[in-house]
């Protein structure tokens, strides 16, 4: 029984135990309560899992977190050290450890001793214990294009999400500087995350988004419908 059905059941029980409620009042009360509960349940915030491969202290993941934090309830699980080039590796020969961190305000955040894919698995099955509505990975310091995608921890985290039938996006900025300016990238993230949360994505599909190192948002040429 889902939460909405359980609440309706409890209200029905309450009405039956009120002798001063005639049948018409009971039906009206339950119908009204059901409609209110459904509206409240449908307004539940999306759950978003944030990860990366450059490590939890990288500027890119902080920029990604700041871009998505107002879209829902945010969980962060990211490697405790850089994991670039790990691809889709998982940890099997030694214990995985996670440690809570407190520098992602108003969010549940953990650093993980494993790979980006480990982070996604732990995030889903141990931290949240449910599938999120969206997984975002990055923002990577440097492009993930061509065969680089095969080695990319950023994209492997997104692919893992797609394998779980969770809408997933990997973001990369075409700038390898550890102190790169992510302000334009954040605007792209916000625009795309909003569309995905509104419209969804096909099951088993993830997006690989490489953002040019533009000086302003107006310098980006976004694709038209014919180019998508």
Write up what this structure looks like:
By secondary structure, the protein is α/β, with parallel strands linked by helices. The protein has two domains: 3-42; 47-219, 3-Layer(aba) Sandwich (Stationary-phase Survival Protein Sure Homolog, Chain: A), CATH 3.40.1210.10. Helix content is 39%, strand content 18%. The chain contains seven helices and seven strands. It has helices spanning 3-16, 23-42, 59-68, 116-128, 148-151, 153-163, 183-199; strands at residues 47-51, 73-79, 98-100, 108-112, 134-141, 168-173, 206-211. The protein has a seven-stranded mixed sheet, sandwiched between helices. The two termini are 41 Å apart. Mean pLDDT is 86; it is low at 224-228.
Total number of helices: 7
> How large is the share of residues in beta strands?
15-25%
Number of strands: 7
The SSE string, one letter per element, is HHEHEEEHEHHEHE
Estimated helix fraction: 25-40%
Which CATH-level-2 architecture of the largest domain?
3-Layer(aba) Sandwich
Number of domains: 2
Biggest sheet character? 7 strands, mixed
How would you summarize the topology of this molecule?
Blueprint lengths: L2 H14 L6 H20 L4 E5 L7 H10 L4 E7 L18 E3 L7 E5 L3 H13 L5 E8 L6 H4 L1 H11 L4 E6 L9 H17 L6 E6 L17
Parallel strand pairs: 1-2, 1-5, 2-4, 5-6, 6-7
Antiparallel strand pairs: 3-4
Structure summarized in a few sentences:
This protein is α/β, with parallel strands linked by helices and 228 residues long. 39% of the residues lie in helices and 18% in strands.
